[in-house]
Amino acid sequence: MSPRSSLSAAPFLAAALLSASAIAAAPAPFVAPSAWMSALGQQVLAPGYAELARSSAALAQGIGAACDAPGDGTLDAARAAWRQTALELRRLAALPFGPALESRILRRLDFWPTRPPQIESSLRGRAAGTLQDERIGVTAKGMPALEYLLFDPARAPLGSDPTACRYAAWLADDAARELDAIQSTWSPWVDSLGETDPETEAALLSDSVNILIGGFDTLRVKYLEKPARKPTDRTGFDAWRSGGERAHLLALFDGLRLGLQGREGLPGLTAILRGRGLLALADRLDAQTEAVAGALQGLPPSPGEDGGAAIARTVEALAVLQGLLAHDVAEKLKVRVGFGDNDGD
């Protein structure tokens, strides 16, 4: 091409480059906090809690079968049902929004660390008729209490302890009843998000960002840092009795990640950032989320036994991610950080 033809083509090339640049930098659609919460409620929370209610009922049936026909087969089936139910709960526990927060159901279903003395005292009192069901506290209820009864290596198997078996079946039934009671509350909550004013939108955004910050703090401190202070002791980790330590950590992270990044057809916090033109910050969040995911995948199945270095890497990656949310994101979105009530222990 001659110099003259090159010069004559330059304006067209420049226009093409500008056009391509404009396409690449096209703004993301604006996502209101109410739209974020509405989609989360409709696509994740309402169906998730409905499935959790069904799983809890199936768990109660499985434990009842283990009580009626003690044996390795029925006990194994009950344990498998607990594993499925507990993982469903752990993912949902990361997202205490709407009715889950208002009802504080997660505290009743998911009190942890587990309190064996309170569980043993409550099952004896209930069997003796000296403790009414409504007086049994959260420290002796929920999925962690059921894990203790189903898996603890230091106590008798449920099949050989009818009192504990009946109590375990009641715990699973109680969880199913609690879950059934909130099913009808999801639709009104989602409907209430259809008409919001700017003040409500700002409150929704602030509360939601704080809940995510609090969730990542819980994952980092409660489920990793504190248990890791005893390097060779796995008993401080969630789900150690059932051998599900890493699986539960990953399930909790999966729930948090869904709130943070969303998925196809479901916006997350990063979609809100991109819709406000904060593309670089959203990209940084995505990159650090991937770093956390990789660190968690690198944990051994039982981190308390041989995962010291891997835990340290995961804690560091989580601290960076939490810092991005608590400082950079909060500043750009004008959110005051105080953490949400994420139903910790």
From TrEMBL:
* Top-rank taxon, per record: Bacteria
Imelysin-like domain location is: 47-303
Q: What is its main location?
A: other
Per its UniProt record, what InterPro entries does this chain match? Answer: Imelysin-like, Imelysin-like_IPPA, Imelysin_sf
| CDD domains with a match to the protein in the record | Imelysin-like_IPPA (cd14659)
Q: Which residues form the signal peptide?
A: 1-24
Q: List the protein's name.
A: Peptidase M75, Imelysin
- Organism equals Thauera linaloolentis (strain DSM 12138 / JCM 21573 / CCUG 41526 / CIP 105981 / IAM 15112 / NBRC 102519 / 47Lol)
